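Predict the structure of Inositol-1-monophosphatase.
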Amino acid sequence: MLNVAIKAARAAGAIINRAALDVEAVRISQKQINDFVTEVDHASEQAIIETLLTAYPGHGILAEESGSQYGAKDSEFVWIIDPLDGTTNFIHGFPVYAVSIALSVRGKIEQAVVYDPSRNDLFTATKGRGAYLNERRIRVSKRTQLKDSLVSTGFPFRPGDNFQNYMRMMADVMPRTAGLRRPGAAALDLAYIAAGYCDGFFETGLSIWDVAAGSLLVTEAGGLIGNFTGEADFLDQGECLAGNPRIYGQLVSILGKYSKFASAGEKAGLRQAQATDAPEQAPATTTEAAVTPSATPDAPF
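Done. Here is the predicted structure for Inositol-1-monophosphatase.
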């Protein structure tokens, strides 16, 4: 099954690489503000689905662009596909994007492929058998302190995203790290955690196809992944936190209070802290006010 997924990912990657040679000619449409889809997404997805269903016609499909309209509807085997994670990067010629394919068996991720076509980097994992980059075994980093760690994230970009809440999370995390990065493709962010390139990752608003394959890469490489409160059942929850075990634990202690699953006490404490911060920004000059995010508390998650 992993070999079939690799074949599908490489077929999609070939389509993406051909289109990248003349990215300005690619037709683009908008699903909603700042959420783009291209003809390349659709062609890549079709190539993946065709490859998978040719080999396994009885399997189900859950894909970003076509949902579950292909494949068997009641199969215990479901392929979860993001044909081009990082579409916004792709249409700008910014070479950080990937194909993500995972196989869920009775609700558990058992096979994973994340393929970066611009670098020809193939990340793979099979449950219980480890994670690999181009057939070389990979492990999460060994860093133990957040101050020495590189942490990746994803900025909110859709209408309705809680931008102020994210700014507070970033302000809590950034000063404690060696650096915060926003590459723009969550599947690759998780693959980079597995390879030890980054030590931690957090993001809200992600869908299952963004994180399914990456989640298995992380755990098979010795890392941990869950929601902001550290619970492992996160795939459909819209928030994701990952890292090597030590950094993961430190990020949970910082970000847990921002989770929609935080306790009532934690949420109340966060609101109180926000209210305390608010008066400090009142005397800002007109110029400062233009660039300083409002500290007015938003509604909780």
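The first strand starts at residue 28 and ends at 32.
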